[in-house]
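REVIEWER CHECKLIST
Item 1: Sequence provided? yes
Item 2: Single chain? yes
Item 3: Sequence as submitted:
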Amino acid sequence: MAYTAIVAGSVDSQNHPEVAVAGVRYTTVSSSPPCGKICSYEWDTAENGKYYPLLYKVVNCSNILYRMAYPPYPPVTGLPPRRPPSHLLQQFTVDQKCPITFHWYFNDDKKLIQENVTAEQFRRFLERDKVANINSYRDKNVLKPALVKYVHTIRGKRVAVIGTVKPWAEAMLLNLGASNVTTVEYRKLLIEDARVTTTTPYRLAKQFIGGYSVPFDTVFTYSSLEHTGLG
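Item 4: Structure as written out by the authors:
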């Protein structure tokens, strides 16, 4: 059985049939099995990109959200292992496509305690963003110009931030006109600003399954998704 997904974005129309919905161009990508290739290293279609190949894979697996909402395993109480478990090494290395060349160990157990960002602390983020680069990563200040370029996807929109340590991204997005921001973070977090809501992946998954989640217009993430899952 084949499954066809409609994916928004700009791709090679010669390889991917396009449809238009409400004036927006979408691309159809077919997949087999119906749930997509979420459990394999295969992809449905590929094309050359500027820096990396663009790999397209349909994902339509309800089990992902159910496992997030209702984890089948008990909470981890011990320290994280210093080396990938041998029986999971193939998954950690993406079927040995990403060999491990050195080991870097973090123990963020204490960071799981709820953190409160006061209104005054967040106000300082907002003010600093107007005069300086508040991005804590050394990216030579290329992020803010990129956000400005695509400000039409931010201004007046409902935006989600996936993963945060310090709410610099939330401040940037609000200063660029986001109507409100929802931070999705594993640990409990409170940011004292009426325009900012915080939640966890578990609560968000339950809301989606229950049919009462509100879709986001735009999702922002920076150095977060690649740390989710195996580590």
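Item 5: Key structural point noted by reviewer: Confidence is low (pLDDT under 50) at residues 1-28.
Item 6: Recommendation: ____
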